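Fig. S4 source data, part A: sequence.
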Amino acid sequence: MTRRSRASPGAEPREEPADADCDPRSLQVLAMPRLEGYALLDSGGGRKLERFGRVLVDRPEPQAMWERRVPAAWKAAHAVFSGEDEEKGRWRTLKAVPETWPLEVLGVTMLCRLSAFRHLGLFPEQLPHWHYLLEGLSRVGSERPRVLNLFAYTGAATLIAAKAGAEVVHVDASRKAIAWARENQAASGLKEAPVRWILDDAGKLAAREARRGRTYHAILIDPPKFGRGPAGEVWDLFRDLPSLMASCARLLAPPPAPALMILTAYAIRASALALDGLLKESIAGRPGAVETGELAIGEETGRRLIGTSLFARWSSA
């Protein structure tokens, strides 16, 4: 297996053995390209000001340690999330905010709302991964692509893949998240798309699928630090992710079929190097290219970037 290493912007990728130590020069920052309907307007003082459709929200962002560049813009916020801990904080609305409003992403409709956990049901920084997913699915050929989306939440990747013609297994441990995803499915006009909505523990589901001999052309893994399954199963990323990755590696479509895997991790005390090593260990022996780094969003008013999550991804082609 090989890895494409990018030493600097514009440099030619070079092939390296994927079991080699990670070259620090190969770590990437994938900044979100422009997305109609969303913008990071400003950041600073531990906060970020974003526009989701016509709604401006002011949310905590501990990494924004710098000064705000457009202080006046913050006065236009419709809602402010107070509290650094998403489980203890709450939204304070300053202007009228619809209960739900749509935002279009790659041909699907995501319904945004002010949730109890300071998010709005859409993570726009994942846009580079969604393009990567679509590119991989386009290489499958005449066979209908099969996608496994674990910790799938409100279903942006699920619906984007389904719209591209894939058969998708959408797995989440939250009944509310699946209900929200199904609302997005209806809003996107994809009610007839071949999506299986499964309320289950991701580790148990992946292990069962592996025992059954199922395979997928694309597997997406976006786990939390900690969580609970629908039957009270306890998820701990550092303890449980290695076994989940091993199961997922067994679920990849075998050569010569194209396959890809995307692993993302938010808000953990780790580095992209940890994900790089785990992903390469999981798919040892499979030819392809590994990319590792951070997802980020750039401000609309300048060049500052806010890192949002770590990632490691692999594609056989």
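Fig. S4 source data, part B ends here. Confidence is low (pLDDT under 50) at residues 1-20.
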